[in-house]
Specification:
This protein is of the alpha/beta class. It has 10 helices and 14 strands. The longest helix has 12 residues.
Length: 393
């Protein structure tokens, strides 16, 4: 199962609308005879790939898979049928499929006389498939907040200079993150101050993410900003009252929220201009999922991050900390409205490792993404998965 989790994790962010799944097939003497992962929607599922590698050696053997085998027909047949046809005697899976459309595979396998067990290394498999499981259970994209800061939490010096706080190695690592997310999101303040391109560079291969700019007033954005260069799809998320405004060339307008939102745009030059309190984070993320965006990398300023955190819409924070001290300058996070230590948002470390001279840390909220219940042990609330879909292949 650990190998199956590794296979799944290698495809995180690369499988389109489908989950990241790994599978290992053992013969009747528990020897590995096949393995595989799901590559992209429209292509064979992990079980089918692993069974093809195993051939006739799968008969009487065991399939170990990170997600409960699907029991429905999409662009490919159900994996439960592929396992039955291959003569597999036993299936061990990590995480139950939480979608009404594709779930129930364990019961189908059991009815076919195949011994079935679930829950092995469920937490690890959940993490390897975290984008899709978040889409299915929370009805929004997975959100990673990425930042680079000094050891004392500054993202720029007092004079506004910030290039470069972190090293070239850390910046390349950040581009690897971009390549594994469907969209990268910033606020208008970041566009005005830093004029980022938000593409994938530094020798990193991969598709360019959709660029999302959140603005309280689109007229205050420079039309010459690099995010509007047409090299990648760019969405300009604005309050509903700007639904008929002219979008800059190279951008698509994405109106969010009720049409009667009152004006509340902070002064020019402040990071508050990143969203102005106008674009509701939950509504924005729901709209992005509706556009097929499964994961979002937040690279905006302090206020953009604070708005998403306050709305409980950040699933992981990845920071590159430089061994430097400034003592003054903008902090990496805006005001969360927390007055006492007892109100602190408590997170836990997932990983910490050196990247060049810097330290890369990954933290997740407590509790982390819940592991979907096994069949017969409860399920998400009725209607919770409406619109989440399931496998598209």
């Amino acid at each position: 199962m650990r190998r199956a989790v590794e296979l799944a994790a290698e495809r995180l962010g690369l499988t389109g609308a489908n989950p990241t799944v790994g599978c290992v097939v053992l013969d009747d003497r528990l020897r590995v005879v096949g393995e595989g992962s799901h590559r992209h929607d429209g292509e064979p599922h992990a079980e089918v790939v692993a069974l093809a590698a195993a051939g006739t050696r799968a008969r009487g053997g065991t399939a170990v898979v990170t997600l409960e085998p699907c029991a429905h027909t999409g662009r490919t047949g159900p994996c439960t049928e592929a396992l039955r046809a291959a003569g597999v005697a036993r299936v061990v899976y990590a995480v139950a499929d939480p979608t009404p459309r594709a779930g129930g595979g364990a019961a189908v396998l059991a009815a076919a006389g195949i011994a079935t067990e679930g829950g092995l290394l469920a937490a690890e498999a959940t993490r390897a498939n975290r984008y899709w499981l978040t889409n299915a259970t929370r009805l929004r994209p997975w959100v990673t907040w990425k930042f680079g800061a000094t050891l004392d939490g500054r993202i720029a010096a007092a004079d506004g200079s910030s290039r470069w706080i972190t090293s070239a190695a850390a910046r390349a690592d950040a581009h690897l993150l971009r390549a594994r997310h469907g969209a990268v999101l910033v606020g208008a303040g970041t566009v005005r101050t830093d004029d980022p391109h938000l593409g994938v560079r530094h020798g990193v291969a991969g598709p360019a993410p959709v660029r999302v700019v959140v603005a309280a007033d689109p007229s205050r954005l420079p039309a010459t900003a690099r995010v509007f260069d047409g090299s990648a799809r760019t969405l300009l998320a604005v309050p509903q009252r700007f639904a008929r405004a002219a979008a800059p060339p190279g951008a698509e307008l994405l109106p969010i929220g009720p049409p009667d939102s009152p004006p509340d745009d902070p002064p020019a030059g402040s990071d508050g201009g990143s969203d102005g309190g106008q674009v509701d984070p939950r509504a924005l993320l729901s709209a992005l999922l509706g556009l097929g965006i499964r994961s979002v990398l937040v690279e905006g300023g302090p206020r953009t991050a604070a708005r998403l955190l306050a709305a409980d819409c950040v699933d992981e924070a990845v920071g590159h900390l430089a061994p430097a001290l400034l003592g003054a300058g903008p902090a990496l996070l805006g005001d969360l409205g927390i007055a006492t230590i007892g109100g602190a948002l408590r997170w836990e470390f997932r990983a910490a490792e050196p990247v060049g001279p810097d330290l890369r840390v990954s933290v997740v909220p407590v509790p982390d993404l819940p592991v979907p219940d096994l069949p017969g042990e409860g399920a998400p609330g009725e209607g919770a998965l409406v619109g989440a879909g399931g496998w598209t292949a």
